[in-house]
Amino acid sequence: MTIIETRDLSKYYIFGSGLRVDALREVNLKIEEGEFVSFMGPSGSGKSTLLNIVGCLDKPSSGTVFIKGTEVDYRNSSSIVSLHRQTIGFVFQAFNLISTMSAMENVCYPMHFNRTSSSLQKQRATELLDLVGLGDRLNHLPSELSGGEQQRVAIARALANSPRLILADEPTGNLDSDTGKKIADLMRKINREQGVSFVITTHDPEMARTADRVVKLKDGKIAPEAF
Ligand SMILES: Nc1ncnc2c1ncn2[C@@H]1O[C@H](COP(=O)(O)OP(=O)(O)OP(=O)(O)O)[C@@H](O)[C@H]1O
To answer: Which GO terms describe its cellular component (predicted)?
Structure first.
């Protein structure tokens, strides 16, 4: 089944001076369930814009996105909230953990919004933190964890509500290359073992090599040549 489809997706910005920047130009893309896809391309080529629109964090100027065959209605906030609660998990370059909450509390956090009972939240968060290799760091604050460990917590948090799709914007961008490789391997393992689809943006050719498919962007368009 196709998990993401975009049809003629465009995004432009118009500045006060009348200058128009085309961040995406009629992008047509299909990503199948279970795929691990990376977006690569030079700075400003549109990778984050495409990821944000697919993840319903931003609206297109024109064109359509389908998630699991259903057209996204960007004006319908309750359908967007339900996509964010149930279908899509996010991982960010800067980890974006809540600094006053422990690893366990950070992973429990998205489950509050799904009305998961407190005991189930703790059970699932423990399992997920174990899965990402942090079973012995449950009560640590983000400031007590390394960058790689913080990103592991963020991956566990992204998995909290059992999404079918994880979108990750430069997930290894703040990490040294060894730690980045371990994070890439962890995401690949979760993809293979749990069938969760991953779409990541990256500048790192090593990270891109772990993907099933590299989508190369240039000037807001998908470049036709193989990478
Ligand atoms: N909010 C915004 N307002 C105006 N222009 C924007 C905005 N967001 C992005 N752009 C422009 O859209 C284009 C695509 O930006 P985008 O962030 O998607 O690129 P990217 O490939 O992710 O870059 P990087 O690798 O540097 O993160 C760029 O020219 C950028 O300047």
So the answer is: membrane protein complex; plasma membrane
